[in-house]
Amino acid sequence: MADSNAQNNELERQNQQLLDAYTQLDRAMAQYAELYDNAPVGYLSTDFDRRIVKTNLTCCSLLKRDRIVLQGMDFLDLVVKGDRSSLLECLERVRHRKGKLECEVRLLNGTPVLLAMEASSAHQECRMVLLDITKQKQAEEALRESERRFKSLVEVTSDWVWEVNEKGVYSYVSPKVYDLLGYGPEEVLGKTPFDLMSPHEAERLLMVFGDIVSRREPFHNLKNVNLRKDGKEVLLESSGVPIFDDDGNFCGFRGIDRDITDR
Fold first, then answer.
1. In what order do the strands lie in the sheet with 125-132?
2. d(Cα 255, Cα 243) in Å, to the nearest integer?
3. Theoretical Cys-Cys bridge with 182: which of 46, 134, 198, 229, CB 3.0 to 4.6 Å?
4. pLDDT tens digits for 203-230?
5. Sign of CA dihedral 236, 241, 244, 248
């Protein structure tokens, strides 16, 4: 009788352990499902025929489709026609080689996304991460528009706009340099301001500019005599500001030169 009770107690203990393990597993699966569905990026899996087999809620939001509707759809049909050929090429490449590939496409609703793809031969599926890059594209367009405006202003201004790197070599020269010195921008790029001066003036300016560079501060109305391509002297007035990168490293100066010869 005692042996029977002991066996029953052991079975009950084992059953309770099993129930506890199932409870922990259910809890872990629920946490995984919540993390998967509410991740900040879209997750999507397709078979090798591009048919959607699994999506998270973030992906559904990006595609603006219900999960039930997406099930079995050809992912290609959710991308704008102009981007489908590049997507097909990328899918074909990722299927036949190991590793991940990335490509940018626009969804049918106009949302630009970055796709990171990886094939699973074991599960016969392609797994994708979809990242909404709308803000990145807007920032890039804003930068391009800013550059267009800057270029337009530079081309109509009466002043010569320039940039030199940390070694004092011209890295940008506006077209106005031709009116001031008779050189095309391509002839000045790669030179230093001192290459356009007489040896005596270059020596004087090297001392002045060396002090400015050491302090890495803006300078204003610095008068200097340059030589035109035809040898004629031109009195310029230079102003500039230092350039720093995102890490605070000095990258050179950006500024303008104005012809004050006739003053």
1. 52-55, 42-47, 125-132, 112-120, 100-106
2. 10
3. 229
4. 999 999 888 988 999 999 999 999 999 9
5. positive
